C-alpha cells in the first residue's frame, strides 16, 4: 500500500530564479518540493521562465511538469502571485492581469502577523541591468556555462563519494567586487523598505539565499532573499507560528531519500505540444477557459 504524503501547511511560500528553459534549472527537485507543501499563497518572485535564453530546442518534460503543476495549484484555489524579473521582463507589460487565482504584478505587499512584507524581484537595484543590459545578458550566458560545468564536477564528486560544491559561490566569495555588490544590494533594499514603513523586504535576483536583520537610518528591517533553483535550491516559507524561515532543499532529510519513479503521463507529450494547444490546456486547468 502506497504511503500517503503529508504536506506541510504554509501561509506563504516564495520561490524565485527557477530559470525554466535553461540547462541549470533543477525542475525535478523543485517539483518534488512543491508537492511536499500546501501553501495558502505562493509567490513566484521573478525569473521563473528564462525568456532571455529560451529556446524551442530545449524545453524538457520536467520543466513542463512544473508549469502544469503550478497551473493545477491555481485551479485548486491556491493564490499565486507571479512577480516579474529581468529574465522574464517580457511579462511586465501584463502587470495587473488576473487569470483565475494567478496574478501577474511587478511587486506585492503582504500584511502578515509578523509585519508588512514588501516583495519584488530586485533587478531594479542592479546597476548592470539599468545601464549595460548587453553586459548583463553576456554575464547570464557565462553563468549558465559555469552551472553546466558545476553539474559535471558534482557528478564526478558523487561518484567518488565526496560532497558537492557550488562553483559560482566560490567565485562570488573570492571576488571582492561581487561581495560588495551583494552587500550594497541588500542594504539598498532594506533602506528603501524602511523608508516606506515595511518590516520585511523579500527579493530574489542575486541567487544568494538569506534571512537577516539590517540596520537603516529609519530602524531595523528584516531582509529576505529566496535564493534560486539553479544552484542553492532554496525558498522562503512563512507561518504565523514561526514567521519567515529559509528552506534549503539539500538540508531536508526527506528530500534526500530516493523518490518513487513517476509513470509517463500527459505531461510528457505536453512538452512537445504546439503553443496554442499548450496555452489552451493550461487555461483549462486554471479554470479560466
TrEMBL record:
Keywords: Cell inner membrane, Cell membrane, Manganese, Membrane, Metal-binding. GO terms for biological process: lipid A biosynthetic process. InterPro entries: Calcineurin-like_PHP (IPR004843), LpxH-like (IPR043461), Metallo-depent_PP-like (IPR029052). The keyword Manganese applies. It comes from the Bacteria. GO terms for molecular function: metal ion binding; UDP-2,3-diacylglucosamine hydrolase activity. GO terms for cellular component: membrane. It holds the Pfam family Metallophos. Coiled coil: none annotated. Residues 12-209 form the Calcineurin-like phosphoesterase domain. This is UDP-2,3-diacylglucosamine diphosphatase. It comes from Hymenobacter rubripertinctus. The lineage of its organism: Bacteria, Pseudomonadati, Bacteroidota, Cytophagia, Cytophagales.
